[in-house]
Amino acid sequence: MIIDALHFWVTDMHVDGFRFDLASVLSRDSQGHPMQEPPLLWSIDSDPILCNTKIIAEAWDAAGLYQVGSFIGDRWNEWNGKYRDDVRAFWRGDSGCISRFASRLLGSPDIYCRYHHSPHRSVNFICAHDGFTLNDLVSYSEKHNLANGEGNRDGDNHNLSSNYGVEGPTDNQEIEALRHRQCKNMLATLFLSLGTPMLSMGDEIRRTQQGNNNAYCQDNPLSWMDWTLVDKHADLMRFVTLLSEIRTAEPVFDWNMHISLNEVLEDVSIRWHGVKPDQPDWSEHSHSLALTVYHPITQDELYVVCNAYWDPLAFTLPSRKGCEWHVLINTAKPSPHDIYPVGNAPIYLEDSVLVNGRSMIVMVSKQTRQG
């Protein structure tokens, strides 16, 4: 019956993909035990009618089975819940997550390399249709679900969120500026990470559910799209638009999606840095990390600095003979100076760069102009 229903949606309704909620439950037998080779999931994976569709698994279920990185099949993509949690934790300023954050930037090789999956296997996301919106992730430290009628017991308690000083909306300009910057930090991380980025509609304009992280039952303004936010947060909309263009246009991100993640990481040169080149701080209390990604074919190089520390840090730039650094992104700057198209990125001539607290800078190297 499940396969027949999927066939109907593809052949009659021309649906081009499916996301399976709590997909791991489909790997259990009639007694509830996980199967090593679940026939239904393999049938979906190999079905000729479904062969050109996207199939995405939420690779866990409500009974505790967690299969991120080990979901069966060759075609299944997976919601990477570890990406969500580790990126949220890093930018919130949690200790002990620097190594995991580095792995998430590179397509989560600690999860996917051992099975030789392609880079797009990992569906990276910060927020989804359930849970906090991006705005609420930086505006509320606790869920506010009383309107759901369950005494605030429903919805996840593990949100890795922060209100940065005031619970909910505030007129405090310093707090509001930090929240806006944190939105840009996480969005930039999402679009620059190796894998398949998934953006929850409305996060590009800071849609809010007033702290409700389980609004499935709210068919009212609490869960509706507030289109006035398009004008209110036009700068963030522009930021996301240019992020998408950079990901498409910059050759360093032109990953070959038909080879394995292992091969992709072997084909490019990646160097990790701290405030000094080639001296990353992997310690428990580190809150900042930088890396350069060099593509040997295009000879393009990106320099990315993520500073989740609350104070500014000065980073010495890696030297590149015959090249100049150009600033693509600086989340601490106001629009339109927070992000530039690749072709218009301004040159940066200093040997070091001051990265504001809780901000991100991305630079691209270009050949020095002659004459």
Automatic annotation (TrEMBL):
Read off the InterPro entries from this record: GH, Glyco_hydro_b, ISOA1-3-like_C
The question of whether Hydrolase is a record keyword is answered with: yes
The record's SUPFAM superfamilies line, in alphabetical order, gives:
(Trans)glycosidases, Glycosyl hydrolase domain
Report which superkingdom the organism of origin falls in: Bacteria
Task: Write down a Pfam family by its short name.
Answer: ISOA1-3_C
Keyword Kinase tagged: no
**What protein is this chain from?**
Glycogen debranching enzyme
Q: Which organism is it from?
A: Photobacterium aphoticum
